[in-house]
TrEMBL record:
The keyword Transmembrane applies. InterPro entries: AA-permease/SLC12A_dom, APC_superfamily. Its main location: membrane. The chain crosses the membrane at residues 12-34, 46-67, 132-151, 158-175, 195-213, 233-253, 273-303, 324-356, 376-397, 409-428, 440-460. The lineage of its organism: Bacteria, Bacillati, Actinomycetota, Actinomycetes, Micrococcales. This is Amino acid permease. Residues 36-469 form the Amino acid permease/ SLC12A domain.
Length: 502
């Protein structure tokens, strides 16, 4: 098959472009406006800034092995490839199906918040009531167009949007420190307010803010010098995200006041940031509100690209229909992008139909589409991170490749334990995460969808490998890439050749 139908654009993305793609998925302004107040409100603690530091350290541990392995294996289905190489073909296929479901749920769920936010702004500007689903479909159309074009275009758009996000968050930080009604203090940074009874809730809510950081490896086939670019971009992104989240959460607490931040967060929720800014500068509040919407758009683009590349990788390997491996003249995963867009359209239209006349009113897309799908997706992705850590550990046991014991053993092991614990905490606190104050079937249904997708993937993997033992990433279509200079350690001269998995 020609490259046009089965190949992504090659070696276009620089480290900077990858960093923007990764940070866009984490959506800094969305986290500041939505995630930070929610964490303050639900936990009732001041230790929210410390949460991001702790999670940043944990994810750095994951990135050590993840980045090192990315130098040897490049594939658009990152989790799929890593778990296949480390744990086996059927486990890889199980992980692939789970990842595909999780990325799609995260992307589609964001349309609920995006549609609500954009509709609110359009209604305020025009005086005409705009349904949330109409606003969501405007974003859907733009995301769909970008997804079928060169990844360079998405990278440029995301670069602009992420830069604007950083600018407004920095402005918020400066204003928070300048207007601090109770003075500037380190009260919200005390470890004692993190290592306390509410630590599980803080970790469960906090980790969702980092979702998307692992997406660097998804673009490894399209990155310049992937041996270094992916690892470097992942480390930079995690470090920047962790420091930025901790700084912005601390300065928001200072701006509102440590004694009032929990109560105000409970009362105002995501509106807290904009109400507080409006008391300082109404124009700045309007600007932040607009950039909040573009922040969501950036996240939609980033997760759309990730899901499209998973469809591409699974189509290319035969796990899903091979037609999904079609790519256009620009090297974009066209079939995967169109498939993801169709799924999003079906779900958004379905929720719009069900929500017509709902007692929840305008909050329907927030309470249902956004909250249900994104929190379930966060559980799935954290669980996959934990499993991937185990796969990395096992792979380096077999193929040391000259890496030290910290890279091969210590970091992956600690990451597996830490991320597994966070995944368990999300399950334990899932009722709080979806805002349920009473027993709800959703507590079991939404995580159940994620778990069921993984089980289905394992069964499907078993069926595929029984029918075609040569199928899957582990054995099919492996193309060699140039070797590194000879390993100076004689004990490693028989190590396997680096490769790109197709």
């Amino acid at each position: 098959m020609s490259e046009k139908t089965s190949g992504l654009s090659t070696r276009h993305l620089s480290t900077g472009s990858l960093v923007f793609m990764i940070i866009a998925a984490s959506a800094p302004l969305t986290v500041l406006a939505g995630g930070v107040p929610t964490s303050f409100a639900v936990s009732g603690r001041l230790g929210v800034p410390v949460t991001y530091v702790v999670l940043g350290i944990l994810l750095m541990l994951f990135a050590i092995g993840y980045g090192a392995m990315s130098g040897h294996i490049q594939n658009a289905g990152a989790f799929y490839a890593y778990i296949t190489e480390g744990l086996g073909g059927r486990q890889g296929i199980g992980a692939a199906v789970l990842a595909l479901v999780a990325y799609n749920m995260m992307q589609i769920g964001l349309y609920g918040l995006f549609g609500f936010s954009l509709a609110t702004v359009l209604t305020a500007w025009t005086g005409v009531s705009v349904p949330w689903w109409v606003a969501a479909l405007l974003g859907w159309a733009l995301v769909g167009v970008l997804g079928t074009h060169s990844v360079d275009l998405s990278a440029k758009v995301l670069g602009v949007l992420v830069s604007l996000e950083f600018l407004i968050v920095i402005v918020v930080g400066v204003l928070g420190l300048r207007t601090a009604p109770e003075g500037v203090s380190l009260e919200a940074l005390r470890p004692g307010d993190f290592f306390t009874q509410g630590i599980g809730v803080l970790l469960a809510f906090g980790v969702a803010a980092f979702m998307g950081f692992e997406s660097g490896a998804i673009y490894s086939e399209e990155a310049k010098d992937p041996r270094r670019t992916v690892s470097r971009a992942t480390f930079i992104a995690v470090g920047v995200i962790a420091v930025f989240y901790a700084f912005s959460a601390w300065t928001l607490a200072m701006g509102v006041g440590p004694s009032a931040i929990n109560e105000q967060s409970s009362e105002l929720g995501p509106d807290l940031l904009f109400v507080w800014l409006a008391s300082i500068s109404p124009a700045l509040s309007e600007c932040a509100n607009l950039l909040f919407i573009t922040s969501l758009l950036a996240a939609l683009i980033a997760f759309h690209n990730a899901a499209a590349r998973y469809f591409f990788a699974l189509g290319r390997s035969g796990v899903l229909p091979h037609k999904l491996a079609f790519s256009g003249s620009t090297g974009a995963p066209v079939a995967g992008s169109v498939t993801q867009s169709i799924l999003a359209l079906i779900v958004v239209v379905g929720f719009a139909a069900v929500g017509a006349g709902s007692s929840l009113g305008k909050m329907f897309p927030i309470v249902t589409l956004f909250t249900w799908l994104t929190n379930a997706a966060a559980f799935g992705l954290v669980f996959l991170l934990a499993v991937t850590s185990v796969a990395i550990l096992v792979w380096f046991v077999r193929h040391p490749r000259g890496h030290g014991v910290i890279t091969r053993w210590v970091a992956p092991a600690l990451a597996a334990v830490g991320l597994g614990t966070v995944a368990a905490l999300i399950l334990v606190n899932f009722d709080l995460m979806i805002g349920s104050d009473q027993p709800s079937a959703l507590v079991f249904v939404m995580p159940g969808i994620i778990i069921a997708s993984g089980v289905f993937g394992l069964v499907w993997g078993e069926i595929i490998l029984r029918r075609r033992p040569d199928a899957g990433l582990a054995t099919k279509g492996i193309d060699a890439v140039p070797k590194r200079p000879a390993d100076p350690d004689p004990s490693h001269t028989n190590a396997p050749q680096e490769r790109t998995l197709s």
